[in-house]
Design a protein that fits this description.
This protein is mainly beta and 297 residues long. The chain is 12% helix and 41% strand.
Length: 297
């Protein structure tokens, strides 16, 4: 008997085929290791169908303890390392598709990263472990490096970078500081910090005069940094747990975004600390972003 497929069923079959063939909204890949004479990125690449290029998420950019600087992914010989850290290879969890790595320094400081995709959101976990014989102060930064992403990599300007200030979604170009004009004239680019969860005698205020960056007068409402594409059609954003974040930062000379540091004090020997963060890559709809940010994890 000859089967007959009615027009509605044809339409349904076509839609199912299109849905099955549609690429995922966001994907992640391990960042390849560079030759020894170039920056040593321990990073993953965040991609989207609408993005030309990728975002390099440096995971982490650095890690420090009481012993000193254990890892820094860029070549700055004036900042000596305690010891050399061999870059680990990323592994893939066959069940979830998550990427992960773990590494341990010669001094016993362990650090590990895990990332997975859920729709338009990348979930990040970063863990440090104190394998030394004494309590440690451990600090890391994760850099959201947009240099390889066309449409996001315009340098110098703050116009496309946003956060929420006093209940409003505002461009960081509108922020102020008595030191901004002089710093820009000297450096030729904007390097902005916004203090979040500011503590008494914040160390960043003590060293502001001797650094390239400047601190905005305004305080962010949320630990969320946003960057809009040049055509204003899409946005990307990064956040970590609100109790962890002490500052938002953007260095427009790269350009990059930060919501950090990932820091723990007096971590006992043998114990670990894990931080969780998210990256959003979506249409340029601040209300939708805010809804996704507030969604329980």
């Amino acid at each position: 008997m000859k089967s007959i497929i009615t027009p509605p069923l044809l339409l349904l079959c076509g839609l199912m085929t299109m849905a099955a063939a549609a690429p995922p909204a966001v994907t992640i890949e391990p960042h390849p290791h560079n030759p020894p004479d170039q920056n040593q990125y321990l990073a993953f690449m965040a991609k989207a169908p609408w993005l030309d290029g990728y975002i390099r998420v440096r995971f982490p950019e650095n890690i420090n303890s009481k012993f000193g600087l254990h890892f820094l992914d860029n070549l700055q010989p004036e900042l000596p390392r305690v010891s050399k850290v061999a870059l680990p290879e990323w592994q893939t969890d066959p069940g979830t598709g998550a990427l992960f790595y773990q590494v341990k320094t010669a001094e016993g400081i362990g650090f590990a990263g895990r990332v997975r995709v859920e729709g338009e959101v990348i979930h990040m976990e970063y863990t440090v472990t104190n394998g030394t014989g004494e309590a440690q102060d451990l600090t890391s930064q994760v850099c959201f490096d947009m240099a390889p992403a066309k449409g996001l990599n315009e340098r110098i300007t703050l116009d496309h970078t946003f956060t929420w200030i006093s209940g409003e979604y505002r461009s960081l170009e509108t922020t102020t500081s008595p030191k901004r004009e002089a710093k820009f004239a000297k450096n030729g680019f904007n390097w902005l910090l916004m203090l979040y969860n500011e503590q008494p005698d914040d160390p960043m205020r003590k060293i502001e005069d001797e650094c390239f960056w400047w601190i905005a007068d305004q305080k962010p409402d949320l630990p969320l940094m946003v960057r809009e594409t040049a055509d204003r059609k899409h946005l990307v954003a990064i956040t970590w747990e609100s109790s962890t974040v002490r500052r938002l930062m953007t260095n427009t000379n790269i350009p990059c975004l930060h919501a950090d540091p990932l820091e723990c004090r007096n971590l006992p020997p043998g114990e670990s600390r894990t931080w969780r963060g998210r990256i959003f890559m979506m249409e340029n709809d601040p209300a939708k972003l805010l809804e996704a940010f507030n969604k329980p994890q």
